[in-house]
Amino acid sequence: MAILYLHPVSALAEEAQKITVSYQYIDEDTGEIFKEEKRNTDKQAGKAYEATPRWEEKYGFEKKEVVQERIDGDSGTAYMFDLGHSKNVLKIEHLSENSEENVIQLYYKEYHLSDSDHTCVDVTIMDEDADVVIKKETFEVKKSDHFYYDIDFIIKDEQGISYRYDSLSTENRERVFSANENAMRNQVKLYYKKGSIKPNEAIVVVYKELDPVDTEYCKKQFIEGLTVGDDFYLDDIHVSGQDNDNDLSELRRLYECHYSYDWKLNEKIYIEKLSSNLNDNILKTYHHLYKLCPGDYAEESTKVILEFVDADTSKAFKTDQRFTSPGAKINYTAVPNKLTASNGNVYYFDKDHANNHLSITAKKIEKGSDVYKAGNVIQAYYFTKKNPGDSAAVRVSYMDSATGKLVRQEDKDGLIVGESYLHQPEESFKIGDVTYTYDQENAKNKLQIENLSGHPGKDEIVIYYKASVSDSNLGQNQNLSKIKKLAAPKKLQAVRTGTTKAKITFRKVKKADGYQISYADNKKFRKAKKRSTGKTSVVLKKLKKNRKYYVRVRAYQKVNGAKKYGTYSKVKVIAKR
């Protein structure tokens, strides 16, 4: 009896559909096949077949791996898949029944890495006009680490031709945010154009330093179009809100992070005289990155306003803002000696100006409050310096030799900037009953200025005089000393009645013939204004807007035509408006 075995038709059909594809792994430097394997596919002959490489979104891998990103070779070498290699064969348009004709060729680059935790970053410097490689470097880094390439503004190729960095090129990629296991994906590309630094051209290098998620990072920026010898001030150094850097924007989205200014005493934001040497024109600013939770910003950070103020007009010609924590002590110690305003005016720091306010303790800013409107303000006062040949004035200050106090002051006009001026002191002058005689032997006398600057506050001549009182008035002054000092006025009140007005009220003092009101915009009452009155209610006018004032009052008696002053009251604050 013959037995006939029938093979299922479905099984025969399935076997017929199996087609073999050969994967050849090629070393792109040597062209040798370092590995080959065969894979079966269920696609029929004549159909297309594609080898899909693994690909990634910004922060995660999606498709299943068909083409391996990394293959470990012999002797501790690692091969990285070069997705962009021009000879890669990733697709077979028509599968053949002859398996030998179905070949996928994949090009890999060999990297000699210290261990499996490391990968490489390729830095390629391109000639943007000729589209050729000027220079190429490879760096070994830890996987997932950040990599930043410290760019040189000027480089030379092997032939000695100079190239300058094109900081405006949108194709520049200066860093790798998170080093991929596949080194071929870690590409830094920098575009240069032929040329060197021109005569009298200055380039400023700015390092903007951040600390994103505990990873050191420093962004380098070149500022061009400047001239050697000019001064330079860096505006807008704070980082806040949106950032143009896509990686940073993604980072902020993922970690709910915010960049804020980190106040440092060793910051450098100003260069007084630009050099032709790149290494001389370096500025550094400091920032930090912190995790931002809902509602944290108002509690953890507060804004500080820095104003550079024209000493003559009292208006700020430059402003800047920083962020710090409430309660932090801020000392602005790196005050530039020289600044140029946007209108071209040159300013010099007036270190002796009474209203310089260079140290504050930052306050928490509440919305809707006066503090919020004005912010935490640091003010640095500057004066304008005139050119040789411009008109100038000298301030002449007459001082009491015994007390060291200023008794008289005047400006001597009609002088010329750059010239020398020698003042001839008066032999004597009289103020009231007191005669002041020139103290010729006083070593503190300053009578000559060699080179006038044009600013009376700087061009100051100081002359010391001895005070004397006539015999006819000695008895009057003795009587003044015997009179008991009047008590301080009580219940002093100071209330703003407008942006430039304030009402001052206080209790009457017994035996007082009048009162002297003293007010200033500083606690020490430097350059305080004084007003005498016989009333206990007075309106002060011509106050400056948005400025806090301090006020005090004392009573006086008149004795033989002279005033005997009493004790000052407690100081009251006139609020801003």
Task: Map the helices and strands.
Layout: H1 9-17, E1 19-27, E2 33-41, E3 49-50, E4 70-72, E5 77-81, E6 91-92, E7 103-112, E8 118-127, E9 132-142, E10 147-148, E11 154-156, E12 162-165, E13 175-176, E14 187-194, E15 201-210, E16 217-227, E17 232-233, H2 246-255, E18 257-261, E19 270-271, E20 282-291, H3 296-300, E21 302-310, E22 316-324, E23 329-331, E24 338-340, E25 346-349, E26 359-361, H4 370-374, E27 376-384, E28 391-400, E29 406-416, E30 421-422, E31 428-431, E32 434-438, E33 448-449, E34 460-469, H5 474-482, E35 493-496, E36 502-505, E37 514-520, E38 529-533, E39 537-540, E40 549-559, E41 562-565, E42 572-574
Parallel strand pairs: 1-7, 8-14, 15-20, 21-27, 28-34
Antiparallel strand pairs: 1-2, 3-6, 4-5, 5-7, 8-9, 10-13, 11-12, 12-14, 15-16, 17-19, 18-20, 21-22, 23-26, 24-25, 25-27, 28-29, 30-33, 31-32, 32-34, 35-36, 36-39, 37-38, 37-40, 40-41, 40-42
